Amino acid sequence: MFYKPSEGHGLPHNPFNALVTPRPIGWISTRDKDGNDNLAPYSFFNAVAYVPPQVMFASTGVKDDVDGTKDSVANIRETGVFCANIVEYGARDAMNLSSATLPHGADEFAHAGIDKQECDTINCARVGGAPAALECRMTQIVQIEGAANYVVFGEVIGVHMRDDCMVDGRFDVTRFEPLSRLGYRDYSVVREVFEIVRPDD
Q1: pLDDT for 72-117, tens place per residue?
Q2: Looking at residue 94, which CATH number applies to its domain?
Q3: Is the Cα torsion angle 30, 92, 162, 159 positive or negative in sign?
Q4: Which of 60, 59, 39, 17 shows the shortest CA–CA distance to 133?
Q5: Taking every annotated instance into account, which residue ranges of this chain make up the domain Flavin reductase like (predicted)?
Q6: Comparing C-alpha atoms, which of 132, 108, 111, 105 is closest to residue 41?
Q7: Distance, CA of 138 to chain centre
Q8: If pLDDT is split at 50, 70 and 90, which confidence band does 201 have?
């Protein structure tokens, strides 16, 4: 099958999300200028550079009570910081609850019963007990094609790693089983890893 997105796919559901998988989930926490905390999952999320360490997430769509975007981007525009929390399989239900569309200023931590802790280097909350949390200073917000498509880039200036995930000096993802997004309503979990040595190593 071949289709041009501009002409439609003719299928019952859009296949695009199912093609680029699995995708890590960035559980993005922000705080607005009035001190209201927000937490939302984004599957358009990844690390993009080593030195300095940088991550990105993309927000698509609009909330009726936010000007042209969603709460996360609006808050980052105001404060210039955010935290990217890593989602484990055990937090899948809480992560899903935090994706609910709530009024601007509502606290998804409270709504989903998620433990909240303060970040160390930025004025922002993070997910307590998350396997890892990346405290970020926003470097760019780039609007891409589409009315409400924004990519947020951040430099990681503080890193939290849960002690039980550290094994022999390495961060072991099998200790917490990362959750990832597939297409449609499908998710996956990492339980098995293997190593491939590059030809140059």
Answers
A1: 999 999 999 999 999 999 999 999 999 999 999 999 999 999 999 9
A2: 2.30.110.10
A3: negative
A4: 39
A5: 18-173
A6: 108
A7: 14
A8: confident
Distance between CA atoms of residues 165 and 173, nearest Å: 7
At 27, list the tokens: 């559980």
Q: At 171, phi and psi to the nearest 5?
A: -80, 110
Instruction: State phi, psi for 43 to the nearest 5 degrees.
Output: -95, -10
Average pLDDT in the 139-150 region?
96
Strand ranges of the sheet holding 179-181, from the earlier edge strand across to the other edge: 23-24, 179-181, 187-189
> If we measure between CA atoms, which residue out of 127, 38, 55, 48 comes closest to residue 88?
127
**What is the pLDDT at residue 122?**
98
Pull the structure tokens for residue 163. 């002690």
Residue 167 lies in a domain: yes
Within-domain flag for 9: no
User: Quick one: tokens of 174?
Assistant: 């099998």
Q: In this model, does residue 67 exceed pLDDT 90? A: no
